[in-house]
Design goal:
heterodimer; A: 358 residues; alpha+beta; Rossmann fold; OB fold (Dihydrolipoamide Acetyltransferase, E2P); 2 domains; 5-stranded antiparallel sheet; 9 helices; B: 582 residues; mainly alpha; MetI-like fold; 25 helices; globular; ATP-binding (chain A); ABC_transporter-like_CS (chain A)
């Protein structure tokens, strides 16, 4: 049974459409990330789900019942959701235990049960020993754990997270990423997670919805978002890539600047003949070698010149120019494979890793 | 849990089916009702008195017909025009003197290793909380031409009969005013200096500039907007000040706008002429505050928000004793000397005889507390007028601040504008507006407590609003949203989350309004009736009677009450709660 459904959801402030006709369905217990650059409408979408913002068109429903529609918004306090905020929003005038128990008390649970559940969840997030501290005495990571405990302890129908890790330093961010996923695996709460950090989205989500300019560009599992981007924006936003424009030739090949590919080998849908074709070639989909490699069926091999190089520690980032072509391609190579600028090399493309974007 | 959700969401679908009805209900939401109520209250408190002031200035007495004769009367005599010129000159001289007192002190406390910073700070605080008219009385005892202590000492030392100093002079008046207004510039400049990191000065040092050059060409120019802002505030305070010019200026035959306005209120009261005569005061204030905003909005002046970098005090070497000496000198003039002579006089049978055992008495206090028919009622009046207006101002202010900050209604900024508007209206002009609008029938509030409370509320609303707005802004909206998403309604959220978080700041704001209201004179003096005299007005009455021992004792009572309140405030809201810059 589908759980949370956004249908044609839109929000406009005056003439500006911040969220534009968003459709998204979350299954029970699913973890979906809204990923996009700042200003793409992802936070507004989340705040509409929470009931803080009224949509100007479309609807949000849960189990088939409408929660939000223009002019009829169920207030946040009646949605049985919970949320983790960018600022954590830990109340400074209450102890850790009081913060975590707040939602339970509002549910009118007996005091003993509130205490027991609070204690239990604080153990889960490894904060049991700090239950009587005030938030000002906690580090950022500890405050984040309190926020997590406070949101999870009420067993919400939907858990919403608004850039929860953006105020943490890099190491802690990585740790909390796994913590959030671990808690999701443990409690299976339907979750919507907003972030602009693709690594965060990849590490946590079952599916990622990439947003741009108020619209959802693509919704897919993380590895599909990466390997099979469907729009130019998704291809460019997720990871680094080379975008190549081509056209279908008479003998059903994709003609690019200087070489051709056979669509059958890309293992993807046939492109439309009339339209220009956009291909995404990841730097990892190509390799460089000093000597001409053995020809493989369908793997284009081109002579090229190294134009620039940058050493990144984990890899080399080369920019090469294939001969008889105006293209400039970024190619990743292992750290020990060293080419000088100006060197002649052979460039090989793996057709399996090339995605037809449109 | 699923059943729960189903029940809840069912009502949502019902609601979704009737958006028309819902939309109509939304207009009746409590926050919208409150908005209308607040607009009405603010119009009554702010817009109507000022509007009425404008209208009255163009009305003929009795008939209400349009006329320009009030303006002809108000500006038709050389004496009235001279008062206007005097006010402007007094404002300029006082703000200049205030800069001379305030800037070195602010620099010394903020940027140097001068000893005795705490003491200097306490002294500035003292000068700030001492009502200016008390300082004026103290300086009459110190620098009266014949029997002032300074002149007596001068004669004793040199044998010369001609007085050394005379408080009853233009310079004397300006000096006494600036000794109580320089803390304003001090606050402005010190908070600006506190924002400058040592790195800014280091950057000049590394290029070859010495300490003094750096201070002159880097540090001081960076705080120039703060100095200018302070000058404008002191100027405006001075031209709108009534107490000190009345106590010192009237005997010295120095007429200024405020004392002239007071004379228009002597029997027969000529409100319409006073209204016409108050216009320059209003226009100057509005104009100068606009100028200040424009100046501060200019690009380049924003660099003072420089953050980060450690702050090291400048090492003054032996100079620090000279700087400390200057701070002590200012403290002597502003607080120690006037306070000493006031206390001496309050316990003296005859103040001119100085400190002597046979001159000591508690009779002045005894007379005020047990035999004077107005002293105790005036204390009671002051306390409850101030408490009532502080409460009203803070309640209105916090509601407006919350509605504006959370954008609960469209056009919330109208509320904020009205709440801040009295900031550009001098208290004395506000009082005349209240008199014109509400003293006469049909509302007939003349001589009631209510008109004073309302006028105080309106006058100090901007202080309360700035305070409340800062308090509400400090509570991140997500603090409230976190409660709502967990099942708390808006009211529960305000009660359990917002209120506990802002209550301390609100108490601080309440106390500030209470304290400034308890010493307010220039608005009160126009609005009190025989039964509603406040301490400040009674003190002014006593000064006219010329019994300085009783006057000083009453000043002592006023000061004691103020000190108790300030002590409570520091305990509840922090040491610097009155000197914080909004």
């Amino acid at each position: 049974m589908s759980r949370l459904v956004l249908k044609g959801l839109s929000k406009a402030y005056g003439p500006v459409r911040v969220v534009d006709d968003v459709d998204l369905t979350l299954q029970e217990g699913e973890f979906v990330c809204l990923l996009g650059p700042s200003g793409c409408g992802k936070t507004t979408t989340l705040r509409m789900i929470a009931g803080f913002v009224e949509p100007t068109a479309g609807s949000i429903s849960m189990n088939g019942e409408v929660l939000s529609a223009p002019g009829a918004v169920l207030p946040p306090e009646r949605r049985r959701m919970s949320m983790i905020f960018q600022s954590y929003a830990i109340w400074p005038n209450m102890t850790v235990a009081e913060n975590v128990g707040f939602g339970l008390k509002l549910q009118k649970l007996p005091a003993a049960e509130v205490r027991a559940l609070t204690k239990q969840i604080l153990e889960v997030v490894q904060m049991g020993h700090l239950a009587d501290r005030y938030p000002a005495e906690l580090s950022g990571g500890q405050q984040q754990r309190v926020a997590l405990a406070r949101a999870i302890v009420v067993k919400p129908a939907v858990l919403l997270l608004d850039e929860p890790l953006s105020n943490l330093d890099a190491n802690l961010r990585e740790e909390m990423r796994f913590e959030i996923r671990r808690l999701h695996d443990e409690f299976r709460i339907t979750t919507v997670y907003v972030t602009h950090d693709q690594a965060e989205a990849m590490a946590t989500a079952d599916r990622i919805a990439v947003m741009n300019a108020g619209r959802i560009e693509q919704v897919d599992a993380p590895h599909l978002i990466y390997t099979q981007p469907r729009t130019r924006f998704v291809a460019a936003f997720i990871g680094r890539t080379n975008l190549l424009e081509g056209r279908l030739t008479k003998n059903d090949e994709i003609g690019l600047d200087g070489f051709t590919l056979r669509p059958a080998q890309l293992g993807q849908r046939m492109p439309d003949a009339a339209q220009p074709i956009l291909l995404s070639v990841r730097p990892q989909a190509m390799s460089l070698s000093r000597h001409q490699p053995e020809l493989r069926e369908g793997w284009p091999v081109l002579p090229a010149t190294v134009a620039q190089r940058t050493y990144l520690g984990e890899s080399w980032d080369y920019v090469v120019r294939p001969q008889h072509s105006g293209l400039q391609l970024r190619v990743a190579a292992p750290p020990r494979q060293v080419h000088e600028v100006g060197e002649e090399v052979w460039l090989e493309l793996d057709p399996q890793q090339i995605a037809i974007v449109s | 849990m699923n059943d729960h959700v189903a029940v809840l969401t069912k009502s949502a679908t019902e609601e979704a089916r009737r958006p028309g009805l819902l939309r109509r209900l939304r207009y009746l939401e409590p926050s919208n009702m409150l908005w209308i109520l607040l607009v009405a209250a603010l119009l009554f408190l702010v817009a109507v008195p000022i509007g009425k002031l404008l209208v009255v200035s163009f009305e003929q007495r009795g008939t209400g017909a349009f006329t320009l004769s009030n303006y002809v009367t108000a500006y038709g005599r050389a004496r009235y025009l001279e008062a206007l010129g005097n006010s402007l000159m007094l404002g300029a001289l006082s703000s200049l003197l205030s800069v001379v007192f305030a800037v070195p002190l602010a620099w010394a406390v903020s940027r140097t290793d001068m000893p005795g910073k705490g003491l200097t700070w306490a002294m500035v605080m003292g000068a700030f909380i001492m009502p200016p008219y008390l300082g004026a009385v103290g300086w009459i005892l110190l620098a009266g031409p014949n029997s002032g202590f300074i002149n007596l000492a001068w004669t004793w030392l040199t044998g010369l009969q001609a007085p050394l100093v005379n408080v009853y002079s233009f310079f004397g008046l300006a000096l006494v005013i600036s000794l109580h207004s320089f803390p304003l510039i001090f606050i402005f400049v010190k908070s600006a200096l506190d924002l400058i990191s040592s790195e800014m000065e280091d950057a000049a040092n590394i290029l070859g500039a010495g300490t003094w050059t750096t201070t002159r060409i880097v540090t001081l120019p960076l705080v120039w907007p703060a100095v200018l802002g302070g000058i404008i505030v002191v100027f405006l305070e001075t031209v709108a000040l009534f107490g000190t010019p009345a106590i010192i200026g009237i005997p010295a035959r120095i007429n200024v706008v405020t004392t002239q306005l007071w004379q228009f209120f002597e029997y027969p009261v000529r409100v319409e002429v006073a209204a016409a005569y108050a216009m320059p005061l209003l226009l100057i204030t509005i104009g100068m505050i606009t100028v200040q905003k424009l100046l501060l909005a200019r690009k380049g002046f924003v660099s003072q928000t420089g953050k980060g970098g450690e702050r090291r005090p400048i090492k003054l070497g032996h100079w620090r004793w000279a700087v400390l000496g200057y701070c002590g000198f200012v403290g002597l003039l502003a607080v120690l000397m006037p306070l000493t002579v006031l206390l001496q006089a309050s316990f003296a049978k005859a103040w001119g005889r100085g400190l002597a055992w046979d001159n000591l008495t508690l009779g002045n206090y005894g007379y005020l507390l047990f035999r004077h028919e107005m002293a105790l009622p005036s204390i009671w009046n002051t306390l409850w007028f101030s408490a009532a207006s502080a409460t009203a101002a803070v309640v209105i202010a916090v509601l407006v601040a919350y509605i504006v900050a959370r954008r609960l209604v469209p056009f919330g900024s109208v509320l904020a504008f009205l709440a801040m508007a009295p900031f550009v209206i001098p208290g004395i002009v506000m009082a005349i507006g209240f008199y014109a609008a509400y003293a006469a029938p049909p509302i007939a509030l003349y001589g009631t407590a209510l008109i004073i409370i309302l006028a105080f509320t309106a006058r100090f609303l901007p202080i309360a609003f700035a305070n409340s707005a800062a308090a509400v802004r400090a509570v991140h909206p997500e603090m409230e949203e976190a409660s709502r998403i967990l099942g708390g309604g808006r009211l529960l959220t305000i009660r359990r989350i917002t209120a506990p978080l802002i209550i301390r700041s609100l108490i601080g704001g309440w106390l500030i309004v209470f304290i400034v209201a308890s010493r307010e004179l220039s608005a009160a003096v126009f609005l009190v009736g025989p039964r509603t005299r406040t301490m400040s007005v009674l003190l002014y009455d006593l000064s006219e009677a010329g019994n300085f021992e009783v006057l000083a004792a009453f000043g002592g009572l006023l000061l004691a009450i103020t000190l108790i309140l300030v002590a409570i405030g520091m305990k509840l809201a922090g040491r610097d709660f009155m000197l914080r810059r909004n």
